[in-house]
Inverse folding.
């Protein structure tokens, strides 16, 4: 099979085929229509309406304050910008953990808003949630390793699975989410070798973030990857300087207004 870049519209079965054929899967977060349309046109395979919107664009310290309404609004916008990419929406903290039924209800709301799949955090503790939701026809992506919604319990943004026992637990969790029906799993902040072991143990694709190059695909928070903010985690490579470009555009605009060179005749309406 040709690489995913040849596929006109990404659908869930393409991801398993990509893993089988050794083609890497690309994923970026998006929180609004214009960035979704730009990333879609750039050929990104999966757009994640991540609850990272909390710290990336909503001004929160972490993802915990993000509500289902925040994710629904962003999902509608991203779905409006995506033509080829598959839209995955995050189930935010508090919208699914209490029961498999609660998980299904929140996932169904995200699907009605335009998502084509949902993502949740956790392993064996959410296996029943994944089973009910995916069994009802909603594709579910799992998320293991550093799980940002558990930042308080984990004691900060720490690399996971460094010791043997926690590495074995992580592999057990990965096998459990696959058995429950997840179609893919995000692996965040873990040693490259462990991410490689999980990737080899699973039939479903793994998408890494801060987990090295042995996973089936990669995901980054777009504001980190494109350099919107001044700071980004150490595993992030900056592929652009969008923050500096915006700052330059804003100060050129302000200078032109102050000097009276904007608006000029070319940008005004004659009588
Ligand atoms: O919300 C998000 O952006 C995520 C990524 C870190 C995978 O979950």
């Amino acid at each position: 099979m040709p690489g995913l870049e040849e596929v006109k519209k990404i659908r869930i079965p393409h991801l398993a085929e990509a893993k089988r054929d050794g083609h890497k899967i690309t994923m970026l977060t998006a929180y609004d229509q214009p960035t979704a349309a730009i990333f879609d046109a750039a050929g990104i395979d999966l757009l994640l309406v991540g609850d990272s919107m909390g710290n990336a664009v909503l001004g929160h310290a972490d993802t915990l304050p993000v509500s289902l309404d925040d994710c629904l609004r962003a999902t509608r916008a991203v779905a409006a910008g995506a033509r080829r990419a598959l839209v995955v929406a995050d189930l935010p903290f508090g919208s699914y953990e209490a029961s498999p039924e609660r998980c299904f209800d929140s996932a169904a709301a995200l699907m009605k808003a335009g998502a084509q799949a949902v993502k949740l955090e956790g392993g064996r503790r959410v296996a029943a949630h994944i089973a009910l939701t995916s069994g009802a026809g909603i594709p579910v992506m799992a998320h293991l390793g550093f799980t940002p919604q558990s930042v308080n319990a984990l004691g900060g943004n720490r690399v996971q699975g460094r010791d043997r026992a926690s590495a074995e637990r992580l592999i057990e969790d990965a096998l459990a989410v696959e058995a429950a029906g997840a179609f893919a799993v995000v692996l965040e902040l873990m040693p490259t070798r462990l991410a490689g072991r999980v990737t080899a143990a699973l039939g479903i694709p793994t998408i890494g973030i801060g987990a090295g190059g042995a996973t089936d695909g990669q995901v980054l928070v777009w504001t980190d990857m494109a350099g919107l903010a001044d700071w980004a985690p150490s595993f992030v490579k900056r592929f652009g300087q969008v923050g500096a470009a915006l700052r330059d555009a804003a100060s050129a605009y302000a200078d032109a207004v102050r000097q009276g060179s904007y608006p000029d005749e070319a940008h005004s309406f004659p009588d």
